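This entry is listed as follows:

___
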Amino acid sequence: MKRPTRVASLALTAALFAVSAGAAVADQAEDDGNFERKHRMHRGMHQGGDPDRMVQHLTRELELGETQQQEIENIITAAKPGMDALHDRVEANMKAMRELDVGDSNYDARLNELAAEKGAIASEQALLHGRLKAEVNAVLTPEQRQELADKRDRIRERFKQREQERPDGEGA
């Protein structure tokens, strides 16, 4: 009994996705660049962007000393151009994927190229973020590292709870 319900749910989800994707493309065409503006705003919310703001946040959360604040600000400031360049590549890749013409005879080849590029960018982002995390962790005391790990665990737990509380009751 559960399997047919799951299959029906997946079919409905796929149908809704197809309809909403079509609507999003139509909205995007009508927005005359508004999509790009909205995406830049969304990116700014998640990218962090401002090293001073990031250091202030860490200072509040972990009670950083002045030397730690300066060291972390230097790390973040040095990494920012690389992070910005990767984010710009992500945006260009997303735009190219949105603009692909499914009727083009080279569609599959171009889609494969863009998908491979997306994977390469994601890999570079993961490496850069990992190095950044290691550099920042090296500045923290063991107690601060533990506090940061505890906060990360609490955030993950809240995320899991939200996923489990979703209306479909299946989590993901």
